Fold this sequence. Notes:
Elements lengths: L3 E4 L14 E5 L2 H5 L2 E4 L10 E4 L3 E4 L3 H9 L3
Antiparallel strand pairs: 1-2, 1-5, 2-3, 3-4
Amino acid sequence: MSDFVICLNNESNPASLIVGKVYRTLSDAEAEAHDMLRVIDEDKSEPDGYLYPASMFAPIELPEVAKQALTAAGV
């Protein structure tokens, strides 16, 4: 899975996710086995992220400079 995803659907979590926004994912093999992703969302109070259905996101590839900037910004 990509280190970054774009939100496609926030119906179940409109306060935590913004459609069209890029989010960073954290590796979680157990979650992925259940078609879930561990995502650092808008709340940011949980450094380990939250689990969301993978169907709410699309993986994206970013240039290395963009990855570094987003990671440094806490995205």
